[in-house]
C-alpha cells in the first residue's frame, strides 16, 4: 500500500468511487458526491491543519480508501482527528493503509496523539481501530452531527508512544 495526498486531478475517479460505495458509507460518512463539493473538499485539505490521504495499491495505483487527519493542533496538544472510508472493503487494505497513515502522522507530522470518534453501532470501524492499537477513552452523547442528527460517539485514541514511535519533537512543542 502507498499513500498520496488527494488532488484536484482525482475528481473523476473519486466521484466514481463515492457513487459506487454509497451503501458501504451510509450512514457513517458523507463524502463529496458532486464536482463542486469535491473541489471544496480538496481546498479544505490544502490548509496546513488538515491532511487528506488516498490509500492506494502499490502495484497498480488503484485507490482503495481515504483517510483524513483533521483539526491538527500544535503546541502542547500535537493532536489530530482521524476519519476514513474504504472503497474496497473486507480485504485488509484499510488496516494496512490506516496503519501507514498513523506512522505518517507520528513520524512525519510529528503529532503526539490521533483520535477517532466512532458511533457505537459502527462495528467495522470499531474493529479497525482496535486492530490498530487505539484505546477507548470515553463516550460522548450527541458529539457529532451525522446523517441529519447529533449522534453519540465512542472516543478512541492512540499516541506515538503506544505504537513505539520515537520521533523528534515538533518545533512548536514547548521545551517544558
Ligand atoms: C470502517 C471501514 C473503513 C473498515 O473497513 P474494512 O474493510 O473492515 O477494513 P479492512 O480493509 O482492513 O478489512 C478488514 C476486514 O477484512 C477481513 N479480511 C479478509 N481478507 C483479509 C486479508 N487477506 N487480510 C486482512 N484482512 C482480511 C478482516 O478479517 C476484516 O474483517 P473483520 O473486521 O470482520 O474481521 C469500512 O467499513 C468503511 O468504509 N465503513 C464506512 C465508513 C466509516 O464507517 N468510516 C468511519 C467512520 S467512524
TrEMBL record:
InterPro entries: Acyl_CoA_acyltransferase, GNAT_dom, N-acetyltransferase
EC number(s) given by UniProt: 2.3.-.-
Transmembrane segments: none
A GO term, aspect molecular function: acyltransferase activity
Enzyme class: transferase
Alphabetical UniProt keywords: Acyltransferase, Transferase
Superkingdom, taxonomy of origin: Bacteria
Entry annotated with the keyword Transferase: yes
Family the UniProt entry places it in: Belongs to the acetyltransferase family. RimJ subfamily.
UniProt-recorded name of the protein: GNAT family N-acetyltransferase
